Amino acid sequence: MTATLGRFLILASVLVSTTGAMISFAAGRKHAPEGVRWAQRFAYAFAALMILATLTMEYALLTHDFSVSYVAHVGSRSVPTWVTIVSLWSSLEGSILFWGAVLGIYIAAATYLNRDQHAEYMPYAIGTWLACGAFFSFLLSGPANPFLTVPAAADGPGPNPLLQNHYLMVIHPPFLYLGYVGMTIPFGYACAALLRGRLGLSFLKPMRASLMVPWIFLTCAIMLGGWWAYEVLGWGGYWAWDPVENASLLPWLTATAALHSAIVMERRGVLKGWTVTLIQASFLLTILGTFMTRSGVFNSVHSFTQSAIGPTILAFLAAVLIFSIALLATRIDTLEAEGRIDSAASKEGAFLFNNLIFVLLTFTVLIGTVFPLVVEAVKGKQMSVGRPYFDAMVVPAGTALLFLLGIGPALPWGRSSRQQILKALLPPIATGGVLIALGAAFGIRNGWTLATMFVGGYAAHVTLAQMWQPLVQRLRRGDSFGNALVNGQLRRGRRRFGSYIVHSGAVIVLIAIAVSSTQRTQHEVKLTKGQATTIGAYTLTFTGTEVRQEPNREATIANFNVAKNGTPVTTLAPRMNQYPQMREPIGTPAVYSTLKGDLYLSIMNLEGDTAGVLVLWMPMVGWIWFAVILMGIGGLVALIPSRAVIAVEAKDSVAAAAPALS
Amino acid sequence: MLGAFLVAGAAFVVIAASSMNKNLVYYWTPTDLVANGDKAYGATIRLGGMVSAGSITKNAGVSGVEFNVHDGAKTVHVKSSGVPPQMFRENIGVVVEGTMVKGGYFQCNRLMVSHSNEYRAPKSGHPVDKQELEKLMKSTEGLETK
Predict the structure, then answer these.
(1) Would you kindly state where each structural domain of chain A is located, as residue ranges?
(2) Which CATH number fits domain B24-139: 2.40.50.140, 3.90.550.10, 3.40.50.1110, 3.30.1330.30?
(3) A138-193, pLDDT tens digit by residue?
(4) Which one in A62, A119, A236, A559 has a CA-CA gap of 20 to 30 Å to B27?
(5) Which of A85, A134, A87, A88 lies closest to A107, judged by CA?
(6) Residue contact B141–A242, C-beta within 8 A
């Protein structure tokens, strides 16, 4: 019954999205206002159907209806309710359904927010979105149908244990989907601009905002994936240049480049076609990422599922690629430049270099990820591109980007005199020097890390100076601090202020990555009960193991007492979780986090009273997670619509008036 | 400026290609390894196979282990300095990453046991399936220990 309802909803959404897409494109061509309203109605209908289908699946999961194929595949009566709820995205078919619901919400929100605006572009945008929606509902109706009727069993196997093993695996996929799926919206706008043959400055605002939203989610998703790997996989790292990790990084690189080139477009009227190209590339890379993660071509740790839908996604990827290239080839000259770039030593020059490096980075990662696949397809030989390739290519590029992050904001727009440029560029060198000295004092001798410290210090100086410049100007004029903060940072320069928050986060992330990857120390050791091992100032004493029965697993826990310079500070309990459906236990390392770094302890094996462990000291690693969250917050600040900020200001002025009265 | 960008792009392609060529990791079975002869020395190899019965010697007290890896046809002696993972035992599929040393053994930097639940060890006496081994090697991607 539930399965039939689900299938009906999916088939209805196929019908609604295909019809809606055709109506939308026709409405765009004919400039018909009535057609636009119908396009909007179809967009809302698609969203409603997708959300209903997802709710139907949640209902089937929660009621343990094992006659629904997906529930029979991932459901279990013995797992906690929260695991049952998140089972929706634990396997292939459910995650595509979840994808559809997220796409529906995005489409409905974007349609609603622009219901009375941009009438010349919106029908084309809605048409593109619904065409993408048609593909995903088609996928759900056939190759990845989660609502097949199967003979009902009494119980099911439950979702992949890796999902149950750590809470980060629960929140990482939704963030990734929100990031991936959200790229459909700016893609629709980019196609609309090309199809319409115009890209006015007013349309840039929704385009940028629609790019910023998935960017924020993707930024957090990449970090959450790394954090999960660090907390769960037990090898003591957060990034391995695994194809699946690369798949999430690729669209992020092009989207970041597009967010920057859009600023140049806004200020100088150039780079229109380029920005549109970057947006289309971001969308294509999300589809490529879906193909890589969901088709099983890379059989890696992250690929929990394999299926026959790979070729279907590949066909969609090819279709979108051909459509995008054809559109760009025939229409890009309609987006003519309204200005020009005069000088390389200017803010727009720095933006160009930024874009160049981001694109080169994208190619570096893309080639390294896809090359082994091509070799295997052509020659039938298996190989992979080793980590040193990625490190050798990405480290210099990352350092250069960090340097640009300092230079760009310091430089003025347009042509300026040598003195102006030197005045802007010289002072931050001092802060860079201070950071090198600081790094050297902490014992850093690695050249690249010191270089990162220098350019990081340089960039931090510029970022903070730029951030507070409007505030300082207002304070000098005699404004109160509260007013200066609200007017100078949050109201007028809110987008600028937000982007500098993002930049501050990026500076911290890059320094923390450099320090944690070059200054880590580690050793592997076998300990019997009562023995101890030392790393840095810490001594870890193995006090024995215990076995604990938990509802969905059996845990073997090794207990360690940790002392710093002889004083007990904490206990660590890395464990091995044995799930009934897994042949092997999943290790869960234990981490003691401090501001300076993490003490990381992972069990390799346990035999009676002997534990083989990996002990690691990872300096600054916790900074990465929090700095990425800071980047996300900065993105949100840049995104908040003016109205909300004005409301805050109104409240603030009332608050400011109150003490004046008393 | 466009010219400068083109030059930078060309330089990038050259650097990327040479860097990638130097850092390829070959996925080989013991048979592939033996067949490649001298070419095997120095290259980074991900070797997949079964741990031979009775071949495991653990160094008492300190971490480190030696064992043979075979694919039914050829056998390679492997030395590893790390602590082997929990599942490591005789007759299990393993993937070792490292280089072939002139001394006639394989120096392993990473020792991985597959996390795949689908891989089943073949019954003793049966030849080891090459496809299964290739799947095994792929399944350990990302399970880095460095």
Answers:
(1) 1-165, 194-426, 432-518+628-661, 525-619
(2) 2.40.50.140
(3) 999 988 899 999 998 888 888 877 777 788 888 898 999 999 999 999 999 999 99
(4) A236
(5) A134
(6) yes
The encoded tokens of residue A249 equal 């990084």
pTM, two decimal places: 0.90
Helix axes A447-476, A428-441, angle to 10 degrees: 140
Give the number of other Cβ atoms within 10 Å of residue A119's Cβ.
Answer: 14
Class of domain A1-165: mainly alpha
How far does A369 lie from chain B, in Å, by closest CA? Answer: 11
Contact B20, A389 (CB under 8 A): yes
**Six token digits for residue A449:** 């890390």
Amino acid at B32: D
CA separation for the pair A611, B23 (Å, rounded): 34
Question: For residues A122 and A128, what is the distance between their CA atoms, to the nearest angstrom?
Answer: 10
CA-nearest of A58, A87, A72 to A155 is: A72
Say whether B113 and A392 touch across the interface (CB within 8 A).
no
Give yes or no for residue B129 having a pLDDT over 70: no
Alpha helices in A237-346 (DSSP H): 243-268, 272-294, 310-331
Task: Please state the three-class secondary structure of B74-96 as a single string.
Answer: CEEEEEECCCCCCCCCCCCEEEE
Task: Verify whether the Cβ–Cβ distance A587 to B12 is below 8 Å.
Answer: no
Contact A243 B141 (CB under 8 A): yes
Burial grade of A483 (CB within 10 A; 0-12, 13-18, 19 or more): middle
Check CB contact of A574 with chain B, cutoff 8 Å: no
Spatial separation of the C-alpha atoms in residues A170 and A164, rounded to whole Å: 8
Name the band, by pLDDT with cuts 50, 70 and 90, for residue A572: very high
